[in-house]
Amino acid sequence: MSAPSTASDKGSLPIATAVLVFLSFALAYFLSALVRAITATLSPTLSAEFALQSSDLGLLAGGYFLGFALTQLPLGNWLDRFGPKRVILGFLSLAVLGVIAFALAGQFATLLAARVLTGMGVSACLMAPLTGFRRWLTPAAQLRANAWMLMTGSLGMLASTLPVQWLMPVVGWRGLFWGLAVLIALAMLVLAWAVPRWDTAEAHEADGHAPAPPGYGAIWRNRFFQRMTPIGFFCYGGMVAVQTLWAGPWMVRVSGFSAAQAAQGLFWINAFMLVTFWVWGLVNPALVRRGLSAPRLMALGMPLSFVVLLANIVLAEGVGWLGWALYCVSCTFVTLSQPAVALAFVPALAGRALSAYNLVIFSGVFVVQWGIGLLVDAFAQAGWSVTASFQGAFVVYLVCCVLSYLYFLAVKAEGRAPTPVRQPLGQAR
């Protein structure tokens, strides 16, 4: 028994095949999200074993996203040229090496290098399926698939909380990473079997366009892409930074939670996110049919996250997991920017458009994660209390988010990327 080798001539997959492809990609993305978020649960253990300060912890968590960001531009070109299957399998090989290196690490520098390598290795786990979905699925189905891929990511983050906390006394944090290496290798086998091959010539015929011009010029110059950039950097990147790291230290150092209580809190934060993305996947096609565009929904919904974040800052010690769960849930409006960017470009540019925007997002995650740690340490050195230091750092972050949102409102770009010149199919080859 073998998976289908090609997509249909019309650029879409039969439903059964589409479900199989989605599930195979979802497995890899689940594991990548687990690896991404596990540092929040392990932060007390790693801080004690390696004597990490807040800035070290932020750099360690951000190292994953630095590695992620470093690969995005070549990743986009490779996705458009070679297709999702070949690219994700090559990248996941690096992820296996990175996870093994983390399990063997004996000092902070090795931990950081391993996290960077791991981030590079899993950097195709969302971009590869979204590139494929751009060609294989209808626009409404793409929005649903995007939301449910993010739901799968939340499931992975959920697995990084209480399950990791329960396994720690049994296998230790190093044993956990050895197990992750095995699971990633198994996911590679599933992807190799299930995902259709990518025929570039057939893909251009399905699009009805000649091959797109090389490079990222058409992406960077696109006004719609520029409009989405600041909110992707600060609001989307900041949501991930809080969800995968800073919600945990806030609960421990500001709210007085134990490590076990913080792990429980992170579990519920990610459970809320899982349900939220599931609901987004259900309602997105209906919203599209009603003419509610992603930019309009973001304009209406994003201010809610600013109100919740301000309330969390003011309440300080009184904020538990529920406050951070509400913040992350209210931020999910900004996740609509990712499929909106993909749909703004022709399929021949989809890999580059998605990877360029992912570069924006994960550069933001790195800057916000490390930046908050630097600010917390700087305020503490200035004599501020722990609570005041965290409050000050998050006020700076909130200001950045509000300014990026105002830019989003000010730029009224609804245009589309220039499409390659249509040519006869024989010449397009």
Largest sheet descriptor? none
Radius of gyration, in Å, reads 21 Å
User: CATH fold name, please?
Assistant: Growth Hormone, Chain: A
- Separation of the first and last Cα atoms: 32 Å
CATH class call: Mainly Alpha
* Unreliable runs: 1-11, 415-429
Mean pLDDT: 85
State the fourth-level CATH superfamily: MFS general substrate transporter like domains
The helix/strand class is: mainly alpha
CATH architecture verdict: Up-down Bundle
Shape: globular
Give an account of the 3D structure.
It comes from Hydrogenophaga atypica. The chain crosses the membrane at residues 12-37, 57-75, 87-106, 112-133, 145-164, 176-195, 228-246, 266-285, 297-315, 321-349, 356-376, 388-408. Residues 21-416 form the Major facilitator superfamily (MFS) profile domain. InterPro entries: MFS, MFS_dom, MFS_Efflux_Transporters, MFS_trans_sf. The protein is mainly α. The chain has a single domain (15-193, 217-413), classed as MFS general substrate transporter like domains (Growth Hormone, Chain: A, Up-down Bundle), CATH 1.20.1250.20. It is 79% helix and 0% strand. It has helices spanning 15-50, 54-82, 84-104, 108-121, 127-136, 139-159, 162-194, 200-207, 217-220, 223-254, 259-289, 294-315, 321-330, 337-343, 350-381, 386-410, 425-428. Helix 3 (84-104) runs antiparallel to helix 7 (162-194). The chain is globular and about 55 Å long. Residues 1-11 and 415-429 have low confidence and may be disordered.
Characteristic key phrases:
429 residues; mainly alpha; Growth Hormone, Chain: A; 17 helices; 79% helix; 0% strand; disordered N terminus; disordered C terminus; MFS_trans_sf; MFS_dom; MFS; cell membrane
